[in-house]
Amino acid sequence: MFWKIVGGLIVAWIAFMVLGSVLGFVFKAVLWIAIIGGAVFLGTAAYGAISGKKSSKRINS
Question: Transmembrane stretches, by residue range (predicted)?
């Protein structure tokens, strides 16, 4: 009975280690994708604001 409990604890520990490793990798990957996406978005917005349209449209009332 003792070895069944110890074996169950070891299996649970290994499962938590693998799950934590996978979730940690996924979290880091998503974090870096979000950082790169934000930088690309800000760069595109800055380029659009700087280059802009040469002729401004006005609304005639």
Answer: 30-50
Residue with tokens 């069944």: 4
- CA-CA-CA-CA torsion for 43, 49, 51, 54, nearest 10 degrees? 160
Per the structure block, which two tokens stand in for 57?
């449209």
Torsion of Cα atoms, 35 then 41 then 43 then 47, to 10°: 180
**Which tokens in the block code for residue 5?**
């409990």
Give dist(CA 11, CA 3) in Å, integer. Answer: 12
Task: Look at residue 11 in the predicted model and tell me its pLDDT.
Answer: 96
Please write the tens of the pLDDT for every residue from 11-39.
Answer: 999 999 999 999 999 999 999 999 999 99
